[in-house]
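User: My collaborator and I are trying to settle a disagreement about how two of our proteins should look. Neither of us wants to argue from intuition anymore, so we agreed to look at predicted structures for both before our next call. Could you fold the first one, then the second, and keep them clearly separated?

Assistant: That sounds like a sensible way to settle it. I'll keep them separate. The first protein:
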Amino acid sequence: MSGIEIAAIVLASYATYQSGQSAQQQAKAQAKWHAYNAKVAEQEAEAERQASAFEAKQQRRRGAQLLARQRTLIGASGIEMEGSPLLVAEDTAAQLAKENINIRLQGLRRVSQFKSQSILDISKASASKSQASSYGQAAYIGAGSSILSGIAGAQYRADMKNLPYTSSDVALAKKHGIM
């Protein structure tokens, strides 16, 4: 085996190894990015939970003020808190309760979306880590395969040179790039 053949085998093997290592590093970086996104989604879910709780608290406070204002106006008018005025107050209270439940449900939906995104990003990070490991193994296997293929090819060419050929066989082989 000539020095050029050895150099070509080593170079091909190293290129295959580097390609696998590069793919492994890229997959590791992707895993870190997905893990980061999962943390961000969790933080957004918590911020949304707090914001919707605050919004519901504010709505309850405004509702209590509205009901107090209604009672004050009804009382100031001299009307008893029974019959139609009582029904209006009960209806207002029911509407305020529905609005508060709606605020909390919308907040829970948004929190759930962020949590789902976090779970998806965690799954993607896990898959990327697994892929990185596979790329690392493939780098070694590919480099070994390049070495073995190169040695086998060099040995084949050496064996072909040592066989008795006629000049027409050699010309045909050279024409097709075999020798």
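The second protein, kept apart from the first:
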Amino acid sequence: MGDIALVEGNNELDIVLQPIAPPEGYDVTLGVSNLTPEVLEVFQWWADITNLGSVPATPTIEWYKDGSLFNVITFTFNPGQTFKLYASSTNFGTPGIHTLGVSVDGVTDEVELNVGAPVTALATIEGQVTDYVNPLPNIRVLLSEYIDATWSFLYDTYTDADGFYRFTDIPIKKYRVYCDSYGQGYWAPGKDVEAIRGINTVDFRLTPLP
């Protein structure tokens, strides 16, 4: 504003106030793909960040795991602009309560995760025994596990009236399934299976003995 010269009498002065741009600021919300992961289960996490200021800004974005600095990046936002920025996928190695945090030039958000102990993955091996046409009931089916380069008997069961059998809640590993059907006049070679989590189907088509 320049100098103002006052004269005798009334002096009217119009003042136009220019708005002052508010200081830079950010809205920050931290997100996680899974709040209850198991130990070593990989998850994603991100921050939705909005520039609340009236000028472009390049804040420093700091990511934290359990209070320790995990990563640092910078990113330029235009006024009013929102971006979803992802941190690197990660996991936790121990069960219990853990925290993830983000700081955008001092504006922070934090999320708490409840990390569970790893659940033992279990498998089921099941199938049907037939003579290529008809189901065969009351056939003994045996399950062996592969230990130290040797097949070791583990469980047995019998087929039901429709020729079905099932072994449930067994660990994920390599097995051999075979039928003890000589007494019923049938034969078939055993079958090896690398059991995975869930259902593993192993059917048998028995051949009549000569």
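Some points you might bring to the call about the second protein. The chain has two domains: 26-115, 122-208. The chain is about 0% helix and 50% strand.
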